[in-house]
Amino acid sequence: GLAMAAALYDGDVEVDLIARGATRESIVKNGIIRKGIFKDISIPAQKVRVFEHPGETGVRGYDYVLISAKTTGNAEIAEQLGKCGQGLVNASGGLVLCQNGFRNEQYYFKVLDKRQIYTASFAIGFQRPEPYISQVTVFSSPITIGSLFDGDLQHLNPLVKALENGDLPARVSQTIEKILWAKMLYNCALNPLSALLKVNYGGLGKSPDAVFIMNHLIEEIFRVMKAAGFSTLWNDAAAYKKQFYEKILPPTYEHRSSTLQDMERRIKTEIDSLNGVIVDLGEEYHVDVPYNTMILRMIKTMQSLY
The pTM is what? Predict the structure, then answer.
């Protein structure tokens, strides 16, 4: 969220931020800093408008509402947006979910028409050394935004242009569902295992035993996709695994997963939106997913022992 906000502010776009607790206090005091792979951006505190709740901004008719919070907060965020009533987003605007996982849209169906709900996929890694600093650590491809519900993709063009003006690559896609499943494959194979073993992604790729586990996670996800009627950018698990180990994993060798970072901070992870979705779909479509189930239960066990 901070990296996108920095890009938009840098492009002279009017932005209101919603943040809480230490994050809000830090932004109020220090402003926003983005550093790392793309150009460094520093937004002074006096230029940043930050609120605790969306109803406090006093603004109606936003062009876009970007949801970049953890998926664990979706129910509460949707409730807060619902209290703002109609007119929060203008007719040609939309709500853009900038989150990990799948099926996050369902929380916001009562807030906006489905055709105004868009989804973004990130192949970019971020870390937050301080609450007001976003460090871009990994870049594989631009932010990709699209609609799962036949929304008008032309409405996304101003947002994409604004992000790119702030040196954050972005694009619109007509095949966002396939791209989301590509990201699910990547996240479900790497995020939780990285957290459980406390290693970066490269460490997983070097371990034959970790590769064995990741292979089974990937194969289960392909079986679930087929049963549920979804598809991705590869026809089968074999084709994906070849690309994964040869092309996708190496550029992110040093990345530490968001799940690992969450567990180090002793906060709830997004596992329910990742491998948890695979387990739910497996139950729904009668597909056995023992490796994803075990990974899910292990992460949940570790969370319960904080």
Answer: 0.91
